[in-house]
Write a structure and sequence with these properties.
about 350 residues, alpha+beta, BirA Bifunctional Protein, domain 2, 2 domains, two-stranded antiparallel ribbon, 13 helices, about 20% strand, binds phenylalanine
Length: about 350
């Protein structure tokens, strides 16, 4: 066959070649584009072409090469387009999202918020203060001077760089700060984290949470406190909840009491939390000691008040059937996930 005929022949095979998918694209590439393609062979034939036609030959082979390459590029691009078009088509935009990772509230936050809600309805507002306290606000102002044996009740973490700074052992330190700055009537609750140097076990931890309450006005009585706490217990633990007040001692209140809530002994958790008695210790309370009012610049002849400090962990453990306080601080995702998602 004449060499010029051969060029035409290959050109018509290029034009006639049907590229329909990736396989046929590859076959085409091997034949016309790849390193051993038939067009390349043609270039070698130039030595057999008469001199006056060499230029014409060169142009035609080049033309053929460009056409073959152009067809390849176009086919490749259109196959890629189809590819992405089909992958878009399989996405159903109306389908629900798979397992959205919604966070949940920590049980301590749930209980604290519930408590804040209850007292907010009685007109208490939230007061927040520092966790690193000084000795005066945590102890001395609260009628617990340095050599007072009551300091042993609360094993304190003192900060290394200073003997006056410590991690607050109770939220009662907020009482002194608020009283120093506010003219009565005062009606606050102070939620927060507190620290005590205690051995960590299933029942106790070196950090925990309290909500402090303080009410100071003219003619505030023990009976007012009892009614307020009974209301709180019923809102928190259910309308049939029973409470009892046991005489107790705190340096900053006189008289002082501890309030227990009746949980019964029906489940393992209630037996454990109540040490088998059925009564859960929920809070400490009492009438603010006149000495404390005086320390904080409030005239005890004019004003009286009550205060209480509620431990959060025990209530949370009771409400959610948590049998080990350490779970609360480990933040294991398998534990946290079990609580109501934030919506
Ligand atoms: N601060 C006491 C405690 O941590 C609780 C308390 C607060 C008692 C207020 C009486 C009044 O145990």
């Amino acid at each position: 066959m004449d060499i010029f005929e051969k060029i035409k022949d290959i050109l018509s095979s290029v034009e006639a070649f049907k590229i329909e998918d990736k396989d046929s694209l590859e076959t085409y590439r091997l034949q016309f584009i790849g390193s051993k393609n038939i067009i390349k062979d043609l270039f070698g034939e130039i030595k057999n072409v008469a001199n006056e036609r060499k230029k014409e030959f060169g142009q035609e082979v080049n033309d053929l090469k460009l056409k073959a390459e152009q067809k390849f590029e176009e086919a490749k691009a259109s196959l890629e387009d189809q590819d992405s078009a089909t992958s878009y088509a399989v996405i159903d935009l109306t389908a629900p999202i798979e397992d959205p990772m919604v966070g949940s509230r920590h049980p301590i936050s749930i209980v604290m918020n519930k408590l804040i809600d209850i007292f907010a309805r009685l007109g208490f507002t939230v007061a927040e203060e520092r966790e690193i306290e000084d000795d005066w606000h945590n102890f001395t102002a609260m009628n617990t001077p340095e050599d007072h044996p009551a300091r042993d009740m609360q094993d304190t973490f003192y900060l290394k760089d200073s003997t006056v700074n410590l991690l607050r052992t109770h939220t009662s330190s907020v009482q002194s700060r608020v009283m120093m700055n506010t003219k009565p009537p005062i009606r606050i609750i102070a939620p927060g984290r507190v620290y005590r140097n205690e051995t960590v076990s299933a029942r106790s931890h070196c950090q925990f949470h309290q909500v402090e309450g303080l009410y100071i006005d003219k003619d505030v009585s023990f009976a007012d406190m009892k009614q307020t706490l009974l209301f709180f217990a019923k809102e928190m633990f259910g309308p049939n909840t029973d409470i009892r007040l046991r005489p107790s001692f705190f340096p900053f209140t006189e008289p002082s009491a501890e309030m227990d809530v009746w949980l019964g002994t029906d489940t393992d958790t209630t037996r454990r939390l109540t040490k088998g008695t059925g009564w859960l210790e929920v809070l400490g309370c009492g009438m603010v000691d006149p000495k404390v009012l005086e320390n904080c610049g409030i005239d005890p002849e004019v004003y009286t008040g009550y205060a209480f400090g509620i431990g959060i962990e025990r209530s949370a453990m009771q409400m959610y059937d948590i049998n080990d306080i350490r779970l609360i601080f480990e933040n294991d995702i398998r534990f946290i996930k079990q609580f109501a998602p934030i919506v």
